Each structure stands twice: as C-alpha cells, then as structure tokens.
Amino acid sequence: MRYLLTTFGCQMNLADAQRLRGILARLGFEETQAEEEADLILFNTCCVRQHAEQRLLSRVQALTDLKRRNPGLLIGIAGCMAQNHQATLFSLLPLVDLVFGPNDIESLPDLLAQARRGRATGEFATRGGFTGEEADGIILDRPFSAFVNIIRGCTNFCSYCIVPTVRGPEVSRPPDEVISFVADLVARGVIEITLLGQNVNAYGRDLGLTEGFVALLERLQGVPGLRWIRFLTSHPRDFTPAAVDRLARLDKVCEQFHLPVQAGSDRILALMNRGYTRDRYLDLVRRVRAAIPGACVTTDLICGFPSETEAEFEETLALVREVRFESAYMYYFSPRPGTRAASLPGLLPEEERKHRLARLIELQNRISWEESQKLVGRTLPVLFEGHSERTPGHLLGKTRTGRAVDCAAPPTLIGTIHPVRIDRARAWTLSGTLVPPA
Ligand code: SF4
C-alpha cells in the first residue's frame, strides 16, 4: 500500500511528519509522490493563518474526482487544523475518512483500521506527549539531520496566536530521554539536530527545572559524534542573560538565533501579551551578539495589529533598522477566531495592513541584502544537504548561521561539513568555492 504525505506549516509539523512516516512504514506502507498511486492521502496541516486553512480546503476538494475513480482511497487530515476544527471537518469535507490532532499521532493505526471498515473517526487529545517517539521509529528526510521535539505545546497565549488552543499546554520531554534519543540518532548517522518547541526557552519549566534548556544543551554538547545543534523557536521573555553566557561556551551550538520580536512598540507588545518591552528585546540582541561572534539574528514581525498607529508602526521600522536582522518572517495581522486579538477594537482596513507589510518587506529585504554582502570573501563551514536545483553539478548546503550556500562539489560530500569560500551573495542564497583540504 502507498501513502502520499503533504506537510504544511512549521518545523514542529516537519518533526511530526518524521513520526507519521515511521508509523506508516511499520504498517507496511511505502511513500509515493503521485496521488494516482496512493491508497492513503494524508495532510499534516497548519492553522496559524486563515490562508493556510483555505489552502487545505481547496487541496482536499480537488481530490473529489480521484476519490470517485478510486473509492478505496483514504483521505486523512492531521495537525493543527484538525485539532482546531475536529469532527466538524467530516461535514465540511465529506471526502475525509480520518482526522486527528498533533497530540494523537500514535492513534493513526487504529484510525486507519476503522476507516477501512468504513467508520470515519477522529482523535483530539488536548495535551501532548512523547509516547512512541523513538529514534528507530521515525523516518528522516535526510539521514544526517533530524528535528528533535523537546517541548510540546505552549502556555504563553500571545493574544493573536491559536497555537496554545490547538497544541495544548507545555509538556517537556525528560532530559535523559532527549539525550538517549539523540544518541540513538547519532548512532544512525545523524550529525546535525534541530531542537524544536514553540518556546524552547521554557524547556523543563513543567518538570520543575531552572534554566532547563541551556542545561540540556550543555549535556548535548557532550554527545560524541554530534557536530551541530540548532534550535527554534526562542521566546525573548524567557531567554535570560545567564543562558546566553552559558550557551556561548558550547561550540556545537550553531550561531543561529531566531528571536521573534513581532513589533517595535511597547503598547502593541503589551496588547500582544508578549511579556517583554522593546528595550528588553534590544538588550537581549546586544547580549547575544556580544557573547557569540558572528551570531545571526532573525525574527518574526506582525504589522497592522489592531489599533496600531502610524507612529507605532514607525517604531517597528526603527527597530528593524537598529537591529539589522539577517532575515525575517513578516506578516500583516489576520484575526484568528478563538484568539483574544480577534475581538480587539481598532482592526485596520486590510489595504492599510497590506501597505504596511509592503513597506516593512522593502526595508528588511534591503537590510538582508546588505548583511549578506558582508559574508563575501569569508570561508565558512557548510553542511551539504543535497543537489542544487539551480545549478547542475552543484550542491546546496547550510552554514552554521543557517544561510543557504550553492557550490560546485561532488555528490559524495552530501551529509558532510566542508569549508567554502563565499564568492557571491544574493539576499537569500550565497554561492562559493569549495576550499580544498590543507
Ligand atoms: S509563544 Fe506565543 S506566538 Fe509562540 S506559539 Fe506560544 S502563544 Fe503562539
């Protein structure tokens, strides 16, 4: 039997996709990229913005004809949108046979069995866990690199965000489990891990640990054979100066820091319930850059938040000019039903929100391009991840700061780290020359 899995959204969903593949392989399924060949079509969904949900609805409706031609085909919806809408999805999308949330991945075998018996069912646990998440139970996109969930859910309740509602409260995976999970991955050939959580800096708080995250990093630093450690997503409120200092001593931890700021105005940050001020954020960035040479700082930004004035938007632009992020994910505010911000007064016209976003993107793109130019002439270690889609005979890799590098290199170097001299920089991709071994 064959399955087609499509994953939308964030890295947490990519990590869940590793588990979904593992479960389906154990059930004897093989993966296919062709809808026509599939016996199961599974969507691992996102609901962080209205657009993501619209896209899923149209993707499923587009399967109407295929399902008519292949009545045995099963269609499933997993992930955050499944949790957000639950069983109502069966009436919204009559084609669908099974629906389950991000905390119910282990229920897939049972849901499939019921679906085959013609019973369309769903599972929607409100609290996450790590049951069944074993290194030999997941299938990696790349054998040398793995996403590692360390904390599920979120209790920050930023006023615009639906995640706490769909992924539940913070649940940290015990440190010993994380260490043995990673050691097993390394034994399988993994050299790079990306630790994941909605807020990794809160890691261990629910286990009664203080500075649990940096303590975990210190233990992972000691795992033999592990080369690079990345993590996301951080929360500026919980990223302490002490953690920055301790983290700076760990040479396996890559100099890549995704620090979502969201806005530059203290009044808007308070309305967002972010829990920090503009100055507190700027101080964190200064500390990271002072303690970690070459640190790359990226962020998330929302413009056009309800009641945001032109002057407050200017504060966001000024913060972007001051910090000079290497890159940023930028959005205009879209109200999410079920969030507090959806009922805040002062919703700006969509045209105005779009206009602010366009101004923000223009500024950030210029800064990203200028910051990229500073890398030209430097020699950087690059982990080669695969073949370049742009240039035949080239490989594509990532630097420790997460920059994409296109470089002429033999396929035998995929999955290994090598120095590359950067010859040219575009806003998002660098190109360079492999530095021959000394
Ligand atoms: S920290 Fe805020 S924005 Fe991030 S997942 Fe939690 S509630 Fe959402």
UniProtKB/TrEMBL annotation:
NCBIfam families in the record: miaB-methiolase, MiaB/RimO family radical SAM methylthiotransferase
An annotated Gene Ontology molecular function: metal ion binding
Top-level taxon in the UniProt lineage: Bacteria
Residues given in the record as [4Fe-4S] cluster 2 binding sites: C154, C158, C161
Quaternary structure and interacting proteins, as annotated: Monomer.
Top-level EC class: transferase
Cofactor binding: number and manner: Binds 2 [4Fe-4S] clusters. One cluster is coordinated with 3 cysteines and an exchangeable S-adenosyl-L-methionine.
Alphabetized InterPro entries for the sequence: Elp3/MiaA/NifB-like_rSAM, Methylthiotransferase, Methylthiotransferase_CS, Methylthiotransferase_N, Methylthiotransferase_N_sf, MiaB_methiolase, rSAM, rSAM_horseshoe
UniProt keyword Ribonucleoprotein, yes or no: no
Keywords for the protein's UniProt record, in alphabetical order: 4Fe-4S, Cytoplasm, Iron, Iron-sulfur, Metal-binding, S-adenosyl-L-methionine, Transferase, tRNA processing
Protein name listed in UniProt: tRNA-2-methylthio-N(6)-dimethylallyladenosine synthase
Residues of the Radical SAM core domain: 140-371
Pfam family, one: Radical_SAM
PANTHER family: CDK5 REGULATORY SUBUNIT-ASSOCIATED PROTEIN 1 (PTHR43020), MITOCHONDRIAL TRNA METHYLTHIOTRANSFERASE CDK5RAP1 (PTHR43020:SF2)
Ranges where the TRAM domain occurs: 373-436
GO CC annotations, alphabetized: cytosol
Gene this chain is encoded by: miaB
